[in-house]
Structure formats: structure tokens, C-alpha cells
Amino acid sequence: xxxxxxxxxxxxxxxxxxxxxxxxxxxxxxxxxxxxxxxxxxxxxxxxxxxxxxxxxxxxxxxxxxxxxxxxxxxxxxxxxxxxxxxxxxxxxxxxxxxxxxxxxxxxxxxxxxxxxxxxxxxxxxxxxxxxxxxxxxxxxxxxxxxxxxxxxxxxxxxxxxxxxxxxxxxxxxxxxxxxxxxxxxxxxxxxxxxxxxxxxxxxxxxxxxxxxxxxxxxxxxxxxxxxxxxxxxxxxxxxxxxxxxxxxxxxxxxxxxxxxxxxxxxxxxxxxxxxxxxxxxxxxxxxxxxxxxxxxxxxxxxxxxxxxxxxxxxxxxxxxxxxxxxxxxxxxxxxxxxxxxxxxxxxxxxxxxxxxxxxxxxxxxxxxxxxxxxxxxxxxxxxxxxxxxxxxxxxxxxxxxxxxxxxxx
Length: 410
Description:
The protein has a domain at 121-192 and 224-378: Fumarate Reductase Cytochrome B subunit (Up-down Bundle). The protein has 16 helices and two strands. Residues 392-410 have low confidence and may be disordered. It is mainly α. α3 crosses α7 (88-103). The radius of gyration is 24 Å and the shape is elongated.
């Protein structure tokens, strides 16, 4: 018995996808070449063919809650082999951007962050104003509360004390991450609701799904299946582990500075160049800068065949700028004479302030920028394991009966 299906196309959504990098969307004529050549697609719910038709139809609600959109790593094997030049990889990248905007809390901030005309306001003026306001409030707060550095601290603490720095970024980052968690919860709920409508049941426990996904993320093993842009794996790995190293060192420095003295352990902060944490930080910084530089180089070399939207470019340049200004501030810390500072001191403070502005843009706008992909893709990969989308299908020849048998297994 046939069943009627009511479609409610969103023409505005289609136009937004086209404007966000999916300009060749209408060229797709559903030949399924993209799903066939994609090594990341799976037999349970092959993509990106279905996503292309949903995008042409303007099925926004279906796409923004589709985990398969995030299983795509935009290696562009599909785009390179599309006979019509429809570029499915770029279309799915545009869908991911719109999915972040749809689930983000608050949504208006996600829309602003991803519009170039607002970059001067959001990435420069807002963080600069807030950091300047924090510096203005430093003296009144120190007068009201027993605040200050626990001991002789680093060179930059004289300009922006650690208690103020940690309190400032902790407050804004916590608010940002609350919005991120709510957005991810909405995303999971949307994926689960879509599967319930389709009558699909979970295939694996959430715990086991998390373990399998974390292993995949740490190894970046899905990138190994890409052929057209296989080199992207190395740049992603370097940037990923570089950022993680810097994050670990930042957390350790905070613990060393404030918790160790309480526990009766001598603090080693500020770290000298040979301290293990400083070594890890410098290695991480090099990995971050080299990884971002390689990513930018690869994109420029393939600009005509693999265009990137401002959504992508802004993130990678911002990440690179954070790494470079971090190294410059470190150099000033070790070369500025503590007695004869003068103009060099103010130059160092100015660069440090720029570095903090960039860090604010990277961390506080995380749930709304390309950086959010780390979390949305991870959640989608967990759900893909949980829902059974990532089951491998093995085709075995049976010559005795002249048929094929499909064996689905985890």
C-alpha cells in the first residue's frame, strides 16, 4: 500500500546552502556516484546521495538532525568524481554550518559569528572591550577582595594578573560551554527523533559507542579512507594534538600556581624553558602552527577545486594566529630585562593583549564557529555507532548457489 508523504520545502534554507558554499547543488541528478565512491559511506544509510536530494528539496529539519552529514570528512572524493560537478562534499560542509547555527544556543550568536561583516565587531571589538573592562576593574576588585598573585609570578602577571585572567576566561568559557552542551543535547534529541520516525532501534550501548568513537577520533582513522585529499589527515592530527597539548599545559599551570601551594607542594610556575610542561607547550605550539600552516597551504593549492567558505577560513587563520602570537609573547618574556623594560615592555604587553583577544575569539565563540565541529562530529559518530550506522557489510561469494550473501556485523 502506498503512503502519502507531505514535504515542506524551505526555499530560504536552499538559498542559504548555496550562499554558504553549495553553489552547485542543483547540478545533482541523483546518479549515486557520490555514495558509491565514498569510502566513509556505509550500507546501512549511504550518503551523500540522500542528503543531496534533501538539500534540493529544502528539507532543513531532516538535514540538521542527520548524523550522516557529520560522518563526511570532506575529503571530496565524491566531488572529484561527480559527473555533473555538483560537489556533494561542499554541500555537506554548508549543511554542517547550518546545523551548528540551528542547534546553537543562542542561535542569533551563531548567525552573527558566521557572517564576515560582523568579524570586526565579534572577533576584535567585543573581546578587546571586555578585556579592557577587566583591567579597569582590577584595582577596585583588589581593594575589595584579598586577591593577588600567590607568589612571584610571570612577567605578564604585572599587566594582567593570573587571578583576573583565569577568572575572566573561566567565566566566559563556562557560559559558552553551557550553550554548547545544550546545543549538543538538542542535536542528539533531533537524531533520535528522526530514527524513531523511521522505526530504527539502537544497535549498541552508549558506553561502547563512546569508547569506539574516542579511539577513532584519537587516531583520525577515518581520514585514512580518503583518497582525493588524503594529506589532510596529517594537518588535522598536528593541529588537534598541538591544541590538546596547549590545553593540558594551561590546566596544569593553573593547578601548579594555585592548588600546589595549598597542598604544601612548591610551585614551579612560571616554568623555565627546560621544565617538562614548557617543553610540552612548545612542542604543542609547533604542531599547532605547522598543522594550521599546512592546512592553509593545501587549501590555497586546491582553491579552484575545493573552495572553502569564510566559516572554514576564519577558524584556521584564528587558530594559526593564536599559536604565532603565543610564541611571540613567550620570546618577549625571556628577552625583556626585568629592570630596564621601557618601550619593550609596552610592546610585549600590547602583543600579549592581542593574543588574549584572539584566544577569546577561539574559545568563547567555540560553540558557534568551525571549532564546534570537533564536538558535533564526535556526538554524531557516537550516535552512528549507537544506532548501527557504522556496521560494515561484507560481501561473500557463494559459487555453489550462484548468489551473494550479505553479512552485517559490528
